[in-house]
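Suppose a classmate hands you a notebook page containing two proteins, each written out with its sequence and a corresponding row of structure tokens. How would you begin to make sense of it? This section walks through that situation. The first entry is reproduced here exactly as it would appear on such a page.
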Amino acid sequence: MVFLTKEQVLSLFKDRFEIIEFNEVEKNGKTGLGKIKHWHIYNVIAKKK
């Protein structure tokens, strides 16, 4: 797993990719160890410039 903020995710694509679609999903769910966590999941579709 990688833990990044929305701004950090967007910066990974800066200057080299055109972001076609960016969605953030927030939900409560279980970790691999069964503990409850609030998740921020980023779905990105990008095209290389």
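The notebook's second entry, a different protein, reads as follows.
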Amino acid sequence: MNRTACLRKILIIDDDQHIGDMLEEALRRKGYGILRAYSGTEALYVLDRETPDLVLLDLMLPGLDGEKLLPGLSGIPVIVVSAKADVESKVSLLLGGAVDYVTKPFNLDELLARISVHLRTAEGCAGERGLRFGRLVLDLDAHRASLDGQTDRSVRLTRTEFAILKLLMQNPLQVLSKSLLLERIEEDTPDCTESSLKMHISNLRKKLRELDGQDHIEAVWGIGFRLKADDT
């Protein structure tokens, strides 16, 4: 699957022709390339040939529904756009990999703004050996976090802090549960336990706050942790 660098592509997965056409028209006016799929099965066919920069995913799809399709979209920012409004559904989908959840009927300007934010903050690489999220840069060799790669505005991270931040930056804006964090960093930091994870995250947040006085990691009550988007 090839990602086109010069044109940001958005895949709209929705069986509602009217909503899909409205979104496509609005997004094309913003300069995005558009891919369409009207079912979960068709979406898999499209994804075999293209890698979009972001996916707008409806849940109520014919055949393979959106909730079953979501796990196969790992690594791509997914905004769920659904008529399901209950908190349980939102929590489940955020834990399942979605970066955002917009309830139908939605305000088009708000959705466009959310798309812009997620695309901007999800820009991944700051170089071959670094990760970037907004102004925050993680040096994968030196185990240091900095603002825009500036050595005079950087902090040294412990092994566990580095593993946590690396995982968060590899999954920008996705809420990661405590259990998932522990599972993913276990190989790099076998000494990190459920009881010590909170302490490691607290120390990491303090170090990142030293860079610019801002909170870069936020706790999502009842779910887990994620990087905080820069709204400036």
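A careful reader of the second entry would note: The longest strand covers residues 9-13.
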